[in-house]
């Protein structure tokens, strides 16, 4: 992966851009192309567009092999003595001087102690709050889209395993039962995780929410699953190899749901279609969000656009960018950014009411020159 | 969990201590007692020892229920308008003013933009580099020790599953085979992960390293496992419920190992015993480390203490504190801190040489008033 950093060039009026973080920070991982548990330094030199790493001796060999940096220095190159914060700042200042950098833009969450240490050494440090790297990261290369595609394939197998459990379930005393045991949110979630693990994917959270739980889009769900109620399954795994994410939601009902739930499902499928139709370069995330609101409002259902205080109906945004982070730019929401080819976004309209349950259908698409390509290959079958 | 923050009181010469981070930061999780994916503010008020949270509306209800804070405010209490960094700083300054705080100590990695925003509003912000909260966190309450104990139980079942695979393996063409398929590091690792997952524990990494892989303590291992060679299995899972970690290592050989490996195993068991004997309040982490070095050096084996340039022998420290992070204070290493009752530490001596393989045995113990309690309940059987 070699990202296009030209936007960073035009943004910079400092000598360079510096990140001091571990690679759990996606901007760090993106700029360095390096994966490390402990913080390290990545300098983007605005003068020549080169990237330079400063890492501990422990990481040096791997950084030279694996990172995308033009050069890698190690602490011992600067006679660093472990343990002292002063020494760390002195070493970093020397490293910056070697690259003729005396003014820096840094991320908003750059560590204060490092910034103060550099300022004491007469290096200008300014925190940028424009999310410049996050904006650059929003546009994916073909290789990045392939990583997301691959994560989505694993995601589909995990959804299939969950759906199969629901299909095979029987009803006893008003609860779903599988293999003689109660089928719970926790149990379905575990099966999803195991399927992903077997495919070398990981996840922090999964939503398997039934009935009233499903009516709260932030509830991950718990306890027994019931027939004839909506069951929302939302899975957003990360590839352990590439670190890119996928995201998909399906809603199921084991047995006949209430008439309103069925109407909501059809309306939500229609809203998703309207959102997809609105996706093209030049359209904004807000346009796509509006397309969803239009469908719901025409059907007489509340939306946050129409009524900011509503607690039922369509009560979240339409989608978000996805990549190294689950939630990235652009946002498909009020004020959402203009879409560009290479943006990978989720489209996930939904309706919620504790009286009815929750319905959400989510696909993952990449914006193309002419519109979009749907990266999702999974059926939409509500009633199992 | 209500931590003893008296050390923070005596450390502070500012009005308060502020964290601006999500709960992936263990200091934030510890001080707030709250688990949230997005950054939020925790203020420790040095005047009265109270803790105050400032969170988004989305987190407000949960923060009031789940956090250990004395009060929880939400953004809307300060008429915060989403989207503007300026607004975020204005809101935070107002929140601090409400608590009569005009000078702050903050963690070394506190976000620069927030610090600069507060300084512009005449609030003093000083980054502390003494790891004050990390030092406080090193001493565990009984409840925290119980969380670690519970994670260790899950860990033992995972180790058992791995050991069982090795025991059941047969040898074909010089490789271990199980259920008709090659037994690899990856396969054993996956079984460990699945066992942990079924017990609601997670892990980022596991070491299952054979032969020359095992000779590098940082190699997680890959490829086929072989008989008559050392296989190091090091598991450090986290409870998904409590977020506390456990840690254990065992070394196995399927079939008779080389004579040297056997000697190393016995020596390492002896070194672990010597380390445990050295553990008591008032002893330092360095004392415990020295006890291990003494055993190895007396047997004529190289250690980093004796020869800082050695690449074989005992080439790492003896152990580390463990809790919300896998690696915490105190360190059982040169310069290691004085041990106190409530410190939970690993004791993990080992010997490494590509010609021989690697041997490491690791237990998890809590320092008590009179010595230590071993939290590990797992046999040490080298040859399977």
From TrEMBL, chains A, B:
Residues 15-121 form the Creatinase N-terminal domain. Residues 147-369 form the Peptidase M24 domain. It comes from Halalkalicoccus tibetensis. InterPro entries: Creatin/AminoP/Spt16_N, Creatinase/aminopeptidase-like, Creatinase_N, Pept_M24, Peptidase_M24B, Peptidase_M24B_aminopep-P_CS. This is Xaa-Pro peptidase family protein. Keywords: Hydrolase, Metal-binding. The keyword Protein transport does not apply. The keyword Hydrolase applies. It holds the Pfam family Creatinase_N. Belongs to the peptidase M24B family. Gene3D superfamilies: Creatinase/methionine aminopeptidase superfamily (3.90.230.10), Creatinase/prolidase N-terminal domain (3.40.350.10). It comes from the Archaea. GO terms for molecular function: hydrolase activity; metal ion binding.
């Amino acid at each position: 992966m070699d990202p296009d950093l030209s936007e960073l060039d035009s943004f910079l009026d400092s000598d360079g851009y510096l990140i001091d973080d571990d690679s759990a920070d996606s901007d760090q991982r993106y700029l360095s192309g390096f994966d490390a548990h402990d913080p390290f330094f990545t300098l983007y030199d605005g003068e020549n567009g080169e990237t330079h790493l400063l890492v501990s001796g422990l990481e040096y060999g791997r950084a030279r092999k694996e990172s995308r940096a033009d050069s890698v220095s190690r602490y011992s190159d600067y006679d660093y003595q472990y343990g002292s914060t002063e020494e760390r700042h002195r070493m970093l200042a020397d490293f910056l001087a070697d690259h003729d950098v005396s003014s820096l833009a840094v991320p908003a969450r750059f560590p204060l102690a490092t910034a103060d240490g550099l300022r004491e050494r007469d290096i200008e440090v300014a925190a940028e709050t424009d999310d410049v790297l996050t904006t650059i990261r929003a546009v994916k290369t073909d290789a990045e889209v392939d990583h997301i595609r691959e994560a989505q394939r694993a995601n589909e197998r995990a959804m299939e395993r969950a759906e199969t459990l629901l299909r095979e379930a029987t009803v006893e005393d008003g609860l779903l039962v599988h293999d003689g045991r109660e089928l719970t949110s926790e149990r379905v979630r575990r099966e999803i995780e195991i399927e992903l693990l077997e495919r070398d994917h990981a996840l922090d959270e999964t939503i398997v929410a039934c009935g009233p739980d499903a009516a709260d889009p932030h509830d991950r769900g718990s306890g027994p699953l019931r027939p004839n109620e909506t069951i929302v399954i939302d899975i957003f795994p990360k590839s352990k190899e590439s670190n890119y994410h996928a995201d998909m939601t399906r809603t199921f009902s084991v047995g006949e749901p209430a008439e309103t739930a069925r109407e909501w499902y059809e309306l939500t499928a229609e809203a998703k279609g309207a959102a997809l139709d609105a996706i093209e370069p030049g359209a904004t995330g807000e346009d796509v969000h509006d397309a969803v609101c239009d469908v719901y409002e025409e059907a007489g259902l509340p939306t946050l656009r129409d009524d900011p205080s509503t607690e039922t109906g369509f009560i979240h945004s339409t989608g978000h960018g996805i990549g190294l982070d689950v939630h990235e730019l652009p946002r498909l929401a009020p004020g959402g950014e203009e879409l560009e080819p290479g943006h990978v976004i989720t489209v996930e309209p939904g309706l919620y009411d504790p009286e009815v349950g929750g319905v959400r259908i989510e696909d993952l698409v990449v914006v193309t020159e002419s519109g979009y390509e749907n990266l999702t290959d999974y059926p939409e079958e509500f009633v199992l």
